[in-house]
Specification:
single chain, alpha+beta, 2 domains, 4-stranded antiparallel beta sheet, 3-stranded antiparallel beta sheet, 4 helices, 13 strands
């Protein structure tokens, strides 16, 4: 066999994955989370008109083991959230009166305003908050902020997936010897994976972690 033919054979034997720019939000319509009542699996579903910006609608959470249920009409967020206050002083016009309040969760009874003293004139104002929710980037579902059921510790970090399809794509990418990208990759799910997940030295550990997640998924399906 010629050297050229041998090289082609070796390339063909290597697994290959082509990243076509799939977004993480493409998998966010279904997730399995942890029930705050019984610690069992919760099925979370939602829809978004656009992949970006992602704005979940018709969201619903249903525990597969107990009576826990939630819908978006409740206006709850179970994950951490920042309450942000920003306004001019109505007395002296000083800009800006600012304050950030960290909440472990957003409930109906959570404060919707905060007292902020003006550093210029000293007037203390009660200013309304706007809330900044980080829906992506950590092991929570993007509709309610519940911790994901499909997560395991891995390489000193947390490895997670929303659902079976999301996990399958992550496994295909991780296992591939050759990874190619097509088109604009700025918002691609794979271009935003943390370095520890894409590192060759961690590949075996990450794949084993995905195997543990698959076992957790099987426990739901059965």
């Amino acid at each position: 066999m010629t050297p050229c033919g041998l090289t082609m054979m070796l390339v063909q034997e290597q697994s290959r994955y082509v990243d076509r720019g799939v977004l993480l939000t493409a998998f966010a319509g279904t997730a399995f989370s942890v029930c705050p009542n019984c610690s069992g699996p919760v099925l979370v579903t939602n829809s978004s008109k656009y992949a970006f910006p992602f704005r979940p609608k018709n969201a619903r959470a249903t525990c597969l083991r107990c009576s826990f249920q939630r819908s978006e009409s409740k206006g709850e967020w179970f994950g951490p959230v920042n309450g942000i206050v920003k306004s001019r002083c109505r007395n002296c016009g000083f800009k800006w009166l600012k304050k950030t309040v960290r909440f472990e969760a957003l409930r109906s009874e959570s404060p919707r305003s905060a007292l902020v003293p003006c550093p210029s004139c000293g007037l203390v104002e009660d200013i309304g908050m706007r809330f900044r929710i980080q829906r992506f980037g950590s092991a929570i579902d993007p509709a309610f902020g519940l911790p994901l059921w499909l997560q395991v510790p891995c390489c000193g970090h947390v490895l997670w997936a929303f659902n079976k399809e999301h996990l399958a794509k992550l496994r295909q990418y991780t296992a591939a010897d050759l990874r190619e990208r097509i088109g604009v990759m700025h918002w691609s799910m794979f271009s935003r994976l943390p370095a520890w997940m894409t590192s060759a030295k961690n590949r075996d550990a990450v794949l084993k972690g995905m195997g543990r997640i698959e076992e957790k998924l099987k426990s739901i399906e059965t």
